[in-house]
Design brief:
The protein has 111 residues and is mostly helical. Helix content is 51%, strand content 11%. A two-stranded antiparallel ribbon has the order 1-2. It starts with 6 loop residues before the first helix and ends in a 20-residue tail after the last helix. Homodimer.
């Protein structure tokens, strides 16, 4: 059964998904159009196995859905508003020193 996640949990899931550059690239690709895994793997230049692991993470975070299309599965953003959120994040101005890193970079729960 699906449940509505509290706001903080939603933001944490989104942050977890965006914490990996490959998952960011997948989300941006799906922002453009739904796609089949083989096409995504080719577009991103990664193995299907690696892509599958990232898609599983994005599904678990509730950001993408798998849509059966005949014998194949197509992936798309779970909600069109995610595309708008990605656009807003991409265009946000963030001031970060070029040589700075997350103070807790060794902590996998950070950044």
């Amino acid at each position: 059964m699906l449940t509505i996640a509290p706001e903080i949990e939603v933001l944490a899931r989104f942050g977890r998904a965006l914490a990996d550059p490959i998952r960011c690239r997948i989300l941006l690709a799906l922002r453009e159009a739904p796609a089949h895994p083989a096409d995504l793997a080719e577009l991103l230049g990664i193995s299907r196995t690696r892509l599958s692991n990232h898609l599983a993470c994005l599904r678990d975070c509730g950001l993408v859905v798998a849509v059966p299309v005949g014998r194949r599965t197509r992936y798309e953003l779970a909600d069109p508003r995610l595309g708008h959120a990605l656009d807003d994040l991409r265009t946000a101005v963030v001031a970060v020193a070029a040589d700075s890193t997350c103070p807790d970079a060794a902590d996998k729960n950070c950044c």
